[in-house]
Design goal:
Blueprint lengths: L10 E5 L5 H8 L5 E3 L36 H9 L9 E5 L9 H8 L4 E6 L2 H14 L7 H7 L2 H5 L3 H9 L7 E5 H6 L1 H12 L19 E2 L2 H10 L1 H9 L9 H14 L1 H9 L4 E2 L6 H14 L3 H5 L15
Parallel strand pairs: 1-3, 1-4, 2-3, 4-5
Antiparallel strand pairs: 6-7
């Protein structure tokens, strides 16, 4: 356990990606007893090339080697700087939606933060995968349609929906009472109840009145013409990669530089860029997924997440009915 700074997270939202973590971040940030890091940090999986391939090449196209080390004071000091503006008595939190899927994270997190509380947002893995794909479309990284992407380069689109295996890794290192599971469907249907329960889990004296908070953040949309957008993505693929390559700053930055750098990266992050561009380009809701692809994904996730409900103590079949049919 690192003792160089008392200002390290008391809780972390570990994922899943495209499961409401941005909305949860926005909501919890409104609580006066909470300090939430402004952006995703990706500290514990900075060297996971499967989750962050763009971290391993710089702006000049040169390969670089990210290397997380448990006892590296420079790295730990870098991590601590994200929480320096917290006030004594506040609960400190961070959100990095790739932590859930990375096998590297649980043992590292347990070593540095053995008392941390972890929040898992779980969305129907089929719709999560589809939303993930459209996120890649909007950020310029998808160059084929959904079915072709699943056939040729599924990558993390499929991987991040294998919830059972991912949660089991965390349960090896953290006690059950330090893990909180929120089903996305329930969060959408009754957000106030979910937030009340979450605040109780975190040990907060009061909850958050959602009547005063905009609870929708980072809502996914599709371009008017997928064909034209994919053609544009293929043409500008390098530009999309450049944005992510700068997301992890070098660890030698001083405090003042880090602060300004973080603000710059937040401003230039794909999510923020696409949010600003959304006002310039007509958008629409996702088109329906083909029946054949949906059936395939339902079978896949029902098989690989078998026993998930028992593992987390929630009847997931109530929210994702196909889980009880495809075995």
């Amino acid at each position: 356990m690192y003792t160089g700074s008392s200002r390290l997270p008391h809780f972390i939202v570990v994922g899943a990606m495209k499961a409401g973590t941005s909305s949860l971040h926005h909501i919890l940030s409104r609580h006066h007893e909470i300090f939430f890091a402004e952006r995703e940090i990706y500290f514990f999986d900075m060297d996971d090339v499967e989750q962050h391939p763009d971290f391993f090449m710089d702006h000049q196209g040169q390969w670089r080697f990210q290397d997380y080390k448990d006892d590296c004071k420079e790295q730990l000091a870098y991590y601590g700087r994200f929480f320096e503006q917290s006030i004594d008595g506040q609960l400190i939190g961070e959100r990095s939606s790739t932590y859930m899927a990375s096998a590297k994270v649980p043992p590292r997190m347990a070593r540095l933060l053995p008392e941390v509380k972890l929040i898992f947002m779980l969305r129907d893995p089929v719709t999560r995968a589809y939303s993930h794909y459209w996120h890649l479309v909007s950020t310029g990284r998808a160059t084929y349609d959904f079915e072709a992407t699943l056939r040729h380069t599924p990558g993390t689109i499929l991987q991040r929906g294998y919830y059972k295996k991912q949660i089991e890794r965390y349960q090896k290192f953290f006690p059950v009472n330090h893990l909180k599971f929120i089903i996305f469907d329930e969060f959408i249907q009754d957000p106030q109840s979910c937030i009340d329960n979450l605040c109780e889990f975190l040990g907060l004296r009061t909850s958050i009145d959602l009547g005063l908070v905009d609870t929708r953040r980072n809502v996914g949309v599709a371009p008017r013409s997928l064909r034209l957008k994919l053609r544009e993505n293929r043409k500008n693929r390098k530009a999309a990669e450049e944005i992510y390559r700068g997301y992890l700053p070098t660890l030698t930055l001083d405090r003042k530089t880090l602060s300004s750098f973080s603000r710059c990266i937040e401003f230039l992050s794909p999510t923020r860029l696409m949010s600003r561009m959304a006002s310039l380009t007509p958008k629409r809701h996702y088109p329906p997924m083909s029946d054949g692809v949906r059936e395939f994904l339902e079978r896949l996730y029902a098989r690989d997440n078998m026993g998930l409900g028992d593992l987390i103590g929630i009847e997931v079949e109530r929210f994702w009915p196909y889980m009880k049919y495809y075995r």
